[in-house]
Write a structure and sequence with these properties.
mainly alpha; elongated; 9 helices
């Protein structure tokens, strides 16, 4: 089993996967999925030709890590292409800066009391506002871009 996992890792790196990202996904997400299967790595219905593009989507970031996990689970069930799953399920993240900024501003405008609390030093309100953006976008907003925009607009 370890040998098959090592071979998958090597095949992914040979196809251009970021070794650190790949290691993280293999030790967390992939091993969890393998644990739910009756078999092992060799029983997965996909190989490096599918896993590397998935990791690329997460790194770009065209999808959020949560969407990546959803896609990986679907890949384990069906062997489908990650791009195809992303499109079919509408999982592409919202990363257009202009659109995100407009959305963040509308959240700020809708929560004046929380903005006052944040500016008075209650840092935990930031997570509430971030959560409001994620709720409005159904989790599709790029978290790092959203955080950056929210910080900039609050200062």
């Amino acid at each position: 089993e370890e040998r098959a996992l090592g071979e998958l890792y090597d095949a992914c790196v040979a196809r251009g996967a970021n070794p650190q990202t790949l290691a993280n996904w293999m030790t967390r997400e992939l091993l969890e999925i393998i644990g739910t299967l009756a078999g092992g790595v060799s029983d997965l219905p996909f190989d490096a030709t599918r896993l590397v593009p998935l990791l690329g989507l997460v790194e770009e970031p065209r999808i959020t890590p949560a969407a990546g996990r959803t896609i990986l689970q679907e890949m384990a069930r069906t062997g489908m292409d990650p791009l195809e799953i992303m499109r079919e399920r509408g999982l592409e993240s919202l990363s257009d800066r202009g659109e995100l900024e407009s959305l963040v501003q509308s959240i700020i405008d809708a929560h004046p009391a929380q903005i006052e609390q944040y500016r008075a030093g209650e840092a935990k309100v930031f997570n509430f506002l971030l959560g409001q953006v994620m709720r409005r976008t159904q989790g599709k907003a790029d978290p790092s871009a959203t955080r950056e925009i929210l910080l900039r607009l609050l200062t």
